[in-house]
């Protein structure tokens, strides 16, 4: 699989089989992903990978919180700006509508939408979960490094025939996650990433991207 194919086929998959992901494959991917760009070579990411009993235990604990109506822990960072303006507001709304339409969930069906959100904390059935933490002392540039690292991981997973779904949703129940992985106190949970083999029978929502002219400006000409 070449790079263009990996980029084109990568998407947020929300339906996985329970087929185990071999540890050697995950190690190979993460070893290669360490070559991701990193300003000053800080490599600010701290990665935890859960499978088997630890992952099952985490899913169970979070499911209990969700079922009780627990809204989650105090947020340590904002997932989105509080007031999204155009065109970002419309893009997010359109993506949500596409996803719920693929699931057959209507706008007013709040229970069905809540179940769809709760599926995040079951990893959408995936047998592996990556958790990405950063040192609290890091700044915006290092968060950008973490994003490039995570994208590299996702593309390498495609090269291995695997799919993924990056999920900031795991930060909502960060205290429960910390109770399982026991990260050093100085780390902050950025996101999780469900990893596995795609369930071809699961509903598929392929979100659109803005036209190139909307996001790219070329400055050309001769001196």
Automatic annotation (TrEMBL):
Residues 7-196 form the Nitroreductase domain. Gene3D superfamilies: NADH Oxidase. GO terms for molecular function: oxidoreductase activity. SUPFAM superfamilies: FMN-dependent nitroreductase-like. Keywords: Flavoprotein, FMN, Oxidoreductase. It holds the Pfam family Nitroreductase. PANTHER family: IODOTYROSINE DEIODINASE 1 (PTHR23026:SF90), NADPH NITROREDUCTASE (PTHR23026). This is Putative nitroreductase. It comes from Streptomyces sparsogenes DSM 40356.
């Amino acid at each position: 699989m070449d790079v263009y194919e990996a980029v084109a086929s990568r998407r947020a998959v929300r339906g996985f089989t329970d087929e185990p992901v071999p540890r050697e494959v995950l190690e190979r991917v993460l070893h290669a992903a360490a070559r991701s760009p990193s300003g000053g070579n800080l490599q600010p990411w701290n990665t935890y990978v859960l499978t088997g009993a630890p992952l099952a235990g985490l899913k169970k604990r979070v499911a209990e919180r969700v079922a009780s109506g627990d809204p989650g822990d105090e947020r340590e960072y904002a997932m989105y700006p509080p007031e999204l303006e155009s065109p970002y507001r419309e893009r997010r709304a359109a993506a949500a509508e596409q996803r719920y339409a693929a699931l057959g969930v209507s706008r007013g069906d709040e229970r069905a939408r809540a179940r769809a959100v709760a599926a995040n904390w079951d990893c959408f059935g995936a047998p592996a979960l990556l958790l990405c933490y950063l040192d609290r002392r890091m700044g915006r540039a290092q968060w950008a490094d973490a994003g490039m690292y995570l994208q590299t991981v996702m593309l390498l997973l495609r090269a291995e025939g695997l799919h993924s779904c990056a999920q900031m949703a795991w930060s909502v129940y960060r205290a429960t996650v910390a109770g399982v992985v026991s990260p050093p106190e100085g780390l902050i949970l950025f996101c999780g990433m469900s990893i596995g083999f795609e369930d071809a029978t699961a509903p598929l929502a392929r979100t659109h991207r803005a036209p190139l002219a909307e996001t790219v400006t070329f400055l050309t000409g001769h001196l």
